[in-house]
Design a protein that fits this description.
The protein has helices at residues 26-37, 49-61, 76-90, 116-144, 156-159, 165-185, 203-208, 211-214, 217-220, 230-240; strands at residues 17-21, 41-45, 66-68, 95-98, 147-152, 190-197, 251-254. Helices cover 46% and strands 13% of the residues. The protein has one domain: NAD(P)-binding Rossmann-like Domain (Rossmann fold, 3-Layer(aba) Sandwich).
């Protein structure tokens, strides 16, 4: 046997403390649940406090570990309180999944109809919130000399999908943030990577999407079926695990082959 790489355990996230922002509903709920099933200790940070607590309670009922810390990621004090609560409960922070976002609540409409306040709120949650959460977990990760940040962008970055211009713009910003931040925190042993999910039938997405909008998407994919939240879980686990230890600043497209780059 060769020393240096533990192939058998390289994909394990057992015992890792992972914060999932927006982990109370939609795709984030699936990340929270699956990470707990994989042995991670999960901190659910969602502005929807009741939903976050329900997911944490279900995880605990299954004999696994999770807490809920109701958090508005766009608020610096709340983002800091979230990181403090995670460290207080579990003693460290290994991973941050920056998944919270304004998306399913946004109407699909012409860029000329977007109210200015809505533009600003999308940027505040999707970009400033990501920056604030990274900043809040950084001291713990720096002390440990280890951290994994996974930022959730969107395949809209590749396709230029119209009718939610603020949302698509914010998700392009996530890729810039990922690249530049990875260069600033690499010395501290922290990796920062990004995922661009394709159109995914989360519970919230399914509720806010007309059949017209989703029809035909499968035809553009290599794998001709709906994308579901579980399709994203493997990439998230990979990016939290030792298997991805030399990867940072990268963007992983998970959309069944609709876009290629
Ligand atoms: N579903 C898709 O088709 C799709 C495609 C590409 C990317 N994404 C991205 O994946 C992620 C999850 O998508 P989803 O479909 O579950 O979205 P969603 O809109 O259903 O869920 C977003 C979650 O973020 C939470 N949230 C909103 N504002 C918040 C705030 N200020 N602070 C903390 N939490 C807040 C919500 O309560 C919710 O739990 C998002 O980043 C989204 O942009 C989704």
């Amino acid at each position: 046997m060769t020393a240096g790489f533990d192939a058998k355990h390289a994909l394990q996230v057992d015992g890792r403390v992972v914060i999932v922002t927006g982990g109370g509903t939609g795709i984030g709920k699936v990340y929270s649940t699956r990470l707990a099933e994989a042995g991670a200790r999960v901190v659910i940070a969602d502005i929807a406090g009741e939903e976050g607590e329900a997911v944490a309670a279900a995880i605990r009922d299954a004999g696994l570990e999770a807490i809920s810390v109701p958090t508005d990621v766009s608020d610096p004090d709340r983002a800091q309180a979230m990181a403090d609560a995670a460290e207080k409960e579990f003693g460290r922070i290994d991973g941050l999944i920056n998944n919270a976002s304004m998306m399913s609540v946004l109407p699909r409409q012409s860029w000329l109809k977007i109210p200015l306040e809505e533009w600003d709120r999308v940027m505040a949650v999707n970009l400033r919130g990501m920056f604030l959460c990274c900043r809040a977990v950084y001291p713990a990760m720096e002390r440990q000399g280890f951290g994994r940040i996974v930022n959730i962008s969107s395949s809209r970055f590749w396709t230029g999908q119209p009718n939610r211009l603020h949302y698509t713009t914010s998700k392009a910003g996530v890729i810039g943030l990922t690249r530049a931040l990875s260069r600033e925190v690499g010395e501290a042993g922290i990796a920062v990577n990004c995922i661009t999910p394709g159109f995914t039938m989360s519970e919230t997405q399914a509720a806010s999407t007309s059949t017209n909008y989703s029809t035909g998407r499968g035809d553009r994919r290599v794998f001709k079926r709906d994308q579901v939240p579980d399709d994203l879980v493997g990439t998230v686990i990979f990016l939290l695990s030792d298997a991805s230890g030399f990867i940072t600043g990268q963007t992983f497209n998970v959309d069944g082959g609709e876009s290629m780059h």
